[in-house]
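Researcher: Structure prediction, please.
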Amino acid sequence: MKKVWYGVITFILCGCLVTPQLVTSAKAPEEDELAALPPIPVEQTVLKDESVYLTLNADGSVKETIVVSRIEAEEAGSYTDYGTYSEIVNLSGSEEPALTDDAIVWNLPSYPEGFYYQGISTEGKAPYSIAISYKVDGKKVAAKDMGGKKGKVDMTIAITPNSDAEKYFKENFMCQVQVPLDLSMAQDVAAPGAMAKVITGKTATLAYMAMPGTKAEYSLSFRTESFSMGTIQISCSASDVSGILGSDMNTIENGVKQLISGQNQIINGTTQLKDGLGQLSGGLDQLSDGANLSAEGSAQLADGLEQYVGGVNQLSGGFEAISDLAEKLKCIVEKLSEMEQVQKVLDDINAILNNEKLQQILDELAAFDPESALPEELKCLAEKLNAIKLPEVDLSEIAGYTDPEKILELLDQVTQLNQLTSAGDMLVEGMNELNSGLDQLADGLDEVAGQTSKIPGQVQQLINGQVSIRDGMSQAMSIFERFMTEGTPKVVSFAAPGKIVPRSVQFIMATDAIN
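Model: Predicted structure follows.
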């Protein structure tokens, strides 16, 4: 029995001694094959930067979008990137990627300076849309037809946030536009709103900017004999406000709040100024109307004074005639005063003539025919007696002027009337001057009222500008608050949002040149 166990043990031991050699002999060929295979690449962490190049038509519309990715590849290994491209080109070597859905796997050797490849993007939108339009002598001309045009050129660049872009790009990316202007081609250049103007040789580079999330529109005008335009460069990059302004954001926040408060006070004050100017304009209108009425009344008063002076002149003429009559009456009175005896004689003659007996004799004589009964002498006597009957003289009207003092008083009144006429003439002349002055005042007030009525509208434009400044400050305040609460936002990939986080993303756009 023991012999059997010894035999079994001996067989097992012998088998154990032989088996390793047999196994070794069996595995040797597999190890040779494995040694001949390339080593499996080590999966590496991808650190990358994205540069997005957009080629634009001359009017700013997009023709093609190319994404150039730079991957840190100091160590050899497998690098997995993501993106949706219609075509991929290795810019650093000859390696070909392995594509699985939107995954792009590169098995790379060491690239100490970084590995570059590009892809033509079929998805994704830039942060801004660019629209470039032209007018020549006031008429719209398509950008593609601008080459060689002559006249006054008005160029407009509209920068509009792209509503289809990722939120990260819309809220954090600013836009810079550089327009190269050939000074040998353009004259009388006007570029309001340009942030900078750099002249190099015969080229003036005009720089414009749009802040994150804001729309901007800029105009450029010049005269040319033959239009041409070089490539317009546009770049969009993240605005690092915290890096620009430093870490003391609380001080900045308080300062901006004070600016907003002060701007609100300015707006309120300007609004009150506008209201006051409106009241001033209304008052000037009323004053102008009153001046016009005063001028009309003054003209009527001047006419009335002229009529008054004319009447006074007529009255003066009448008084002068009376004065002449008074002078004559004065002489008559003087003569009559010397003829008191004559008056008595006349009275006696009248008394005799009024005697009834004498009248009877005269009547009989008148009825008697002297030719037949009386001699020639009697006839003559009768005629003379008839002639003796004188008419009665009525001196009652003259009696009132027998007093020389009254006549002198009348003459003095005539003198005063002449003085009144002279004063009336001076008054008419003064009223004419006053009327002329009132006319000028009315015209001046009309002009002032017309100009003043425009001021409230101009002040409203000022208010609108002040409101825009305040709104801009408020927008800046919201950006500061976002940075204070959220910090620097996480970078989002343009090529594959949510799949990979690049270190940086930038956009470079270039338009076609116009020749």
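Model: The first helix runs from residue 2 to 36.
Researcher: Thanks, that helps.
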